[in-house]
Amino acid sequence: MKLEHLLLGLIGEKPSTGYEIKRYLDTHGRFLRSNTTMSQVYRSLAGMVERGWVLFTVDDRPGAQDAKIYRVTPEGMTVLLDWLTGPYSPPSRFQDPEFGARLSFAGFMAREQLIDLIETELTAREDQVARFRLRDRTLQVDPDVDFDYEFAAAFNERMHVYGMAAIDNYMDMLRELRRDLLDGVIGSAPAISKRPIRAEASESGATR
Length: 208
Prior knowledge:
Layout: H1 3-13, H2 18-26, H3 38-51, E1 54-59, E2 67-72, H4 74-85, H5 98-104, H6 111-132, H7 149-182
Antiparallel strand pairs: 1-2
Helix pairs in contact: 1-4, 2-3, 6-7
């Protein structure tokens, strides 16, 4: 996932200034991407203008610096949709943000596309649990300094228990999302012509 993908999604939802985008990434969007600088935002926006993905109009503001308001072009929307609905390869860590970032722009996707994305993620996590949950977790250590092996082993086992609970809850959430999408519980099929209202991000990054 590139910064440009997030910017296209955000501007696609609501034409924005660079400052507004940065403010969003510093607050709600911090769960989708961390530590984004203002220079990165403006550099990416400039490159997207050159590629024809976005355009801007200048908003005259008497007594203050004029602001550029960026909007997505049809070519930029194609790039965004190609990313949202294109191939998705789940990373090794379920906490990585790309899956949540894709879900956060669900308003641009059809119900079937969302279900396929969720099933891809869920299948990968189920396979991951099946392969690694019962792995040999014996510590392979041979330190040259004092080392409390029993304490380290007990602590690592506690962290393993926490990790199991976290990924189990995550998979339950994916199953619930899939079920509710299949049953039509979550809204109606999106209309691409309608601009969705930007909502706040959750800490999981799965919704905003």
